[in-house]
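Chain A, query sequence.
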Amino acid sequence: MNTPIEKSKGGRPKKPVKRSYRLRVACTALELTIIETKAKQVQLTVSEFLREAAFNSHIDTRQKTLPKEVLDFTGQLNHLAANVNSLAYKNNAAQIFSAFERTELKQLAVQVKELAQAIKNSLK
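Chain A, predicted structure.
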């Protein structure tokens, strides 16, 4: 009987999942040395080491935005700082404050105290 004989093509067997995408990672010489050393310690190639590190690491995905209260406090502080700055400029120019400006200074002092108290209360 004539049965065809399958001939081996030779060469390396095909991988089930081909890794055809390349990543470029910028690092310093020291960082490269550390990565290579750690990969060698666990007997992995640098590519395998980085893949394992990526899949087995946990990244804390905290929300980066500040709470509304903190943003409000920041806005109020910036407003007060601008008012104090303009009054300090006038004072440094040796000009006399009017009755309105003295009243405004007293109101600013009250606002600063209230804001400081609100910050203390929110931190408790």
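The chain has two domains: 23-61, 68-123. Helices lie at 29-41, 46-56, 68-92, 99-123.
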